[in-house]
Please model this.
Amino acid sequence: MKIIRYLRVALESITAHKLRAILTMLGIIIGVAAVLVTMGIGRGAAANITERIESQGTNLLTINPGASSSGGIQGDSGSAGTLTLKDAHDLMNKDLHPAVSLVAPEYAA
Model:
């Protein structure tokens, strides 16, 4: 019986304060829509990033030269002090490295 009484009081309050009820419903609708849009954008961005990473392939390897230090600031790290064009040509040798399909040397200063 109490539930029916509570529902009747709630309906009377809603009908007595129509503008307040409409504004409350509007706020709830806008809030739910904002959450859904935010979740959709987040999931779309995550799917886009995953697709970009997967499109690079699982067999991609980047080799960088060893650690460098300039003015007390540590740079990138690796096991070789320097890499030369000869190193890239050696990687292209199918007899020494049969699993390597492509080598693209790059110079950056």
In short: The chain is about 55% helix and 5% strand.
